[in-house]
Fold this protein.
Amino acid sequence: MDWKKHHRVLIVTGHFGSGKTEFSINLGLHLRELGENVSLVDLDIINTYFRLREEEDFLEKKGIHTYYSAIKATSLDLPALDPAIDAILYDKDRRVILDVGGNPSGARALARYQPSLEETGYEQLFVINANRPETKTAQEVIDFMEMTQATSGTQITGLFNTTHFLKDTTAEDVINGLALAEEVSDITGLPLLGTVCLKSLEEEVRAAREDLYILPIDLYFRDSWML
């Protein structure tokens, strides 16, 4: 089964710094290239950096509309979400990706839409970066997943490996990071749906793990001085 086609609504959760937003943007662009009508929803009302709204102009040029606070100001961090989000969740001609804040408190914004999500159905992808100090063991990842689910009222349905060291990431880093994701998968019974890697590493990662879906990505949230 192709997980991308299983549900029209995709939720992306994970610990802060795991690569949720980069994953959401690149997945949205990939689906748009396949001809889908894609909207990205920024539900991160906790973190004031690296949010979808920062790339709104770029995404609009690519044919992807973004939704976030009802107040259109990138410098404000207000839990006032665009009422249009409710409507797009029910738009059967639109693929919706929701990027959720990177801690259990951030998942409270997702809880606002829990009744609608139960009606529409969804796939919730939990991304795992084995290099995050707060989620370096399987039990730490599982504890965080359980807190996220309890806060949002939604259920995680699949796992994705997003292990990275930003621009310095190697194929070996990505492949080694899969061990943690696979351990979490074994314990929870949740499927490991795939891994991301920089586009420059795709060939090497694919050669090592032909069994996995691989999403090659570009980085959109790091200025050159941060890489």
In short: Strands lie at 9-14, 38-43, 65-67, 95-100, 123-128, 158-161, 192-198, 213-217. The CA atoms of residues 194 and 211 lie 9 Å apart. The mean pLDDT is 86. Residues 171-188 form the longest helix (18 residues).
